Amino acid sequence: MSETTTEGPPLEDKTDRKGNGIMVRAMAWFDSRLGLSHQMLRPAPQYSINPFYWLGALATVAFVIQGVTGVIMMLYYVPSPTQAYATTRYIFQSVSYGTFLETIHLYTAYAMIMLAFMHLMRGYFVSVQKKPRELMWVTGMVMGFVTLGFGFTGYLLPWTIVSKSATDVGIGMMGALPQPLASFLTFLIVGSGSDAGELLRFFDLHVVVLPAVLLVLLVVKMYMLETHGVSEPTSGIESLPPKKRKLIPIFPDVSFYLVELAALFGSAVIIISVIFPLALQPEYSASLAGQYVAQPDWYFLWVYQILKIAAFEQAGLPVALSVVTLVFIALVLLPFIDRGKTRSIRDRMVYVTLGGIFVAEVAVLAVWGYLTPGIAMPDETAGLVLGGTALLVTLGSVLAYRAVFGGLRGIAKNRGRGGATVAQTPSSVTIRPVPLRSAALWTLGIFVCLLVAGAFFIGGSINGVIALRLGAPAAFQSFAVSLAGLSFAVVGTMFLLYRLDLGTGSIRRRIRAFELGWRE
Amino acid sequence: MIAEQPVTDKNIIVTERMGVRIVSLLLLVAIISVFVLWSVNPVGSGSESTFALFLAVDLVSVAMISYVERAVAREGRIGKAPLVAGCLFILFLVVAGI
User: Fold this and answer.
1) DSSP alpha helices (H): ranges in A190-292?
2) Which residues of B touch A21 (CB under 8 A)?
3) What is the value of ipTM here, to two decimals?
4) A264 to chain B nearest CA, in Å?
5) Predicted confidence (pLDDT) per residue in A44-79, tens digit
6) Alpha-carbon distance B76 to B6, whole Å?
7) pTM > 0.80
């Protein structure tokens, strides 16, 4: 490539009189015909050129891909219990690239749900739901439910043993909802109660009703986005350099960026579908269904696992569903619950921690539900795992806030006042200063590792004691290893706390407050 | 290195010329991959993965063309790392597809 600008060939042949090249002229040609630069849409700020700002747009891309692949599959699929499986098998086996088509349809559905969830949680953590975007949040939540509805209705259509059994469980759960809602949903989804009616209704909902509802909601949300624009960063727009605050037009800048994201997303889905192609499950039959343990798809596994907790099983399905429904209602009404003025993550520790607990619990429940199909969860185990997860996340959050926003800044202040080590260092020794943020992250990382190791070794020690009591072989060895590990974790934690205390002195102050004494 | 030079009027012209060349090459790759997509025997063994991988080549080419156009129009320079990464990715997909 020619890197020197003075010795290259004359440029007149590729540029017009103003020095514009082919690409600029081509853009100008299209612009003069289509009026693309007339700012039909509100310009976006430069800082929004970031994938996290466009997770919802990527979910929409997934929706479009599903629409295209779904329409192609509709050419072959027949929604009747006698032909649904046969036509699905025909798509897999006889249609050109049929397996690829089915795989892409399923994986983009998964991606759509995952992207919608990421979009939701990102919005939660950066608090986009605050004034004036409350209705955008509510619309987005309804779109999320519609997306889950897509998953639920589409799952039944192949009429496999897995899909039919899981859907039957889901329909059974609907009957346990509060009465007007239960009757409405049963009428909407099940119809007369026959398999044919059920499948036809699921098909209609999947290909007509839900896409139409989602499109309307999408238009409404786009209108609100156009009204309010992209949300500002939580640290405030003043904290950004002028270059990042600059407004850029939707076309070509943002549009081209979205094309990049969409194309890369599409290629990623394609590559995953090549690596993990979908295999068709056996056909549904009533005799096979009795032998099969029904399990929902991964995005409903956390609900499934909650329903398996013994206390909820005893209290009945309505109580269990009410708990899940309350979580959803709280999420929908979040803009009217979290009414604080600030959007800063630093000042919203409680909400950020609650969000972290929600994500961690959903992940733990989903993995647990996947690993233990059909096995009920005792109350003690549920309490230990869910409570332990919440405790760990809370501890991690408190420590992270202390380390990033509070704790180590105290150290820096103390050192700045000349109270600590840097001034006492001999001048011949050069100390490379460790960045504060890096030190905070390292401290936090080690502390979390020690906590996790401690929890692990406590469990191991308890197991070891029980095994010793029962006289199991090699019990002493595992007990000794667990005890040694636990000692290491305790000593490590004490050392870390001591090191932290050197700077802030907060532990010393608290011990003094309890009059336990402290030797200076 | 074009990407590290200060942006001047002359550099912009050179970068734009580079952009045209890169886009032309990427268009060529995209056209060839479309040709492959049409010529793959749909009932042949392994044809699905060949089709899928060349479709991915097409999409990555489109993403790179979009990136080059955006970079030239807005920043006046093209980052080297995304270009190299994209080319290597295309190469990998083509080798896997073949």
Assistant:
1) 195-204, 210-228, 242-245, 255-275, 286-289
2) 13, 16-17, 19-20
3) 0.86
4) 6
5) 899 999 999 999 999 999 999 999 999 999 999 999
6) 10
7) no
